[in-house]
Amino acid sequence: MMFPLFTINFINISIELSSLTLTNVLIVLFVSTALGAIISGLYAFTHRKTVYDHAFNTTLLLLPIIISIIIILVSNNIARAFSLAGVFTLVRFRSAITDSRDIAFILSAVGVGLAMSLGMIGYAVTFTLFISAVMMIIHYLKLDQQRKTHAKLRIIIPENLNYANVFDDVFHQYVTSFQLTRVKTTDFGTMFELTYLIKTKANIDQKAFIDELRVRNGNLSITLTTDYISIVSE
After folding, report:
1. What are the backbone angles phi and psi of residue 154, rounded to the nearest 5°?
2. How many domains does the chain fold into?
3. Are 72 and 20 in contact (CB under 8 A)?
4. 141, 173, 188: which is the final residue of a domain?
């Protein structure tokens, strides 16, 4: 019976921020830094095998601190809140988020900062630990990884080659579905660039697949892309 009671008491740990004191502000800043470090470390761990922006990782560390400071400063003051909104309208973000998973980390850091700005230390710690546990489960179960069966295939062919059905027999051997989505002339009209969206069969030999395509297109350029961002973009 003591464990649920301890949990409830831990969640209800808070500090009163209606009257700011140096001690209270330092507690908010240090706890926000610690929780931001957990989120930042989680991001670095789950992205350790990929290329990621280290500046974004640092931002995750600082974001709970910044949000806490901002909310504390504008709390109970409408004029400050409107002034802050005017300042944010002048901010321009130079880099776009290419991985939608990054939004979850940003919102997590913002949520922790909001909880800390209200003095809810227990809730902020609980939220951080719970979100971290969920993200770790997703990471180890590989629920966030793209299945490498969908791909974009670009093939360069000479202009005198009829592209209508020239690769169909190769596709039937290596892919389960294919669709010609774009035909583009290149090299001053001497070449055609064909773009296909394909779904490959499981565990195919990519080199053998490309080699058979090279036989048909005269050993010209072939590009096979499995990255999701590249597939959905032009």
Report:
1. -110, 125
2. 2
3. yes
4. 141
Q: Are 119 and 177 in the same domain?
A: no
* Tokens representing residue 192 in the block: 């055609």
Ranges in the chain, pLDDT < 50:
1-3, 5-7
Q: What is the dihedral of CA 93, 96, 101, 105, to 10 degrees?
A: -10
Question: Domain holding 166: CATH number?
Answer: 3.30.70.1380
165-191 pLDDT per residue, tens: 889 999 999 999 898 989 999 888 889
The answer to whether residues 51 and 25 belong to one domain is yes
Instruction: Let me know: does 122 contact 12? Beta carbons within 8 Å.
Output: yes
Rounded to whole angstroms, the maximal C-alpha distance in the chain is 81
Query: Alpha-carbon distance 206 to 225, whole Å?
Result: 11
Helices marked H in 47-195 — which ranges? 54-74, 78-88, 101-117, 121-141, 168-174
Sheet holding 175-186, edge to edge: 175-186, 191-200, 150-158, 222-225
Q: Same structural domain for residues 121 and 177?
A: no
Domain that holds residue 198: 150-232
- Indicate whether 132 and 205 sit together in one domain: no
